[in-house]
Amino acid sequence: MWKKSHLAEKYGYTHLSAGDLLRDERKRPGSQYGELIENYIKEGEIVPVEITISLLKRAMDQTMAANSQKNKFLIDGFPRNEDNLQGWNKTMDGKADVSFVLFFDCDNEICIGRCLERGKSSGRSDDNRESLEKRIHTYLQSTRPIIDLYERMGKVRKVDASKSVDEVFEKVVQIFDKEG
Ligand code: C5P
Ligand code: MG
């Protein structure tokens, strides 16, 4: 199956997933945030941005320090709420431009079904119906308004993610071909 990270690389982007960075921090021995992160994840809530933005910024800085050409990022799963957005603006003001937002739009029940399927092997503590319903609630309450805001700025590129893996891939490729 195609991965966002491979596709991103093909177009010169480094893929950074906010959720993956939080999960890595959660399991890092000695992390002072491990328990807090786990609680937010299980409850489908959004971790305070101070934590997430410092993980993101460090990953971006490390990537660019290793190779100064690598200054394009596909940031996955961020910003998820107003707090995320404010943290981004505060930290990245004058440092980073947002070219566009990829919006994988998908019916809630289809998402839940796919994550339950993934849950058979993912080991994720939030791939269960209870957490998934909380995540949908958070999405509708806190994330949708952020997408709407970027929509009003003309920055949203929407993909119908209820379609097949191949169809979604095709559509994302079209977007990257156009946006560069
Ligand atoms: O994007 P992903 O499905 O990996 O996110 C899983 C969980 O990680 C979210 O439900 C949320 O608890 C946490 N998260 C967060 N802030 C983000 C991205 C993810 O708190 N920006
Ligand atoms: Mg993710």
From TrEMBL:
Give me the Gene Ontology terms describing cellular component: cytoplasm
Chain segments annotated as transmembrane: none
Signal peptide residues on this chain, from the entry's feature table:
none
| Principal cellular location given in the protein's record | cytoplasm
Q: Which residues form a coiled coil?
A: none
- Which compartments does it reside in? Cytoplasm
Out of the domains of life, which is the source?
Answer: Eukaryota
This protein's record includes keyword Nucleotide-binding? yes
Q: Name one GO biological process term.
A: 'de novo' pyrimidine nucleobase biosynthetic process
**A Pfam family the protein falls into:** ADK
Q: Which GO terms describe its molecular function?
A: AMP kinase activity; ATP binding; nucleoside diphosphate kinase activity
Q: Which InterPro entries match?
A: Adenylat/UMP-CMP_kin (IPR000850), Adenylat_kinase_CS (IPR033690), P-loop_NTPase (IPR027417), UMP_CMP_kinase (IPR006266)
Keyword set, alphabetical order: ATP-binding, Cytoplasm, Kinase, Nucleotide-binding, Nucleus, Pyrimidine biosynthesis, Transferase
Q: What is catalysed by this protein?
A: UMP + ATP = UDP + ADP; GDP + ATP = GTP + ADP; dADP + GTP = dATP + GDP; dATP + AMP = dADP + ADP
Annotated HAMAP family: Adenylate_kinase_Adk
The family note in this entry says: Belongs to the adenylate kinase family.
| Protein name, UniProt field | Nucleoside-diphosphate kinase
Q: Which organism is it from?
A: Ficedula albicollis (Collared flycatcher)
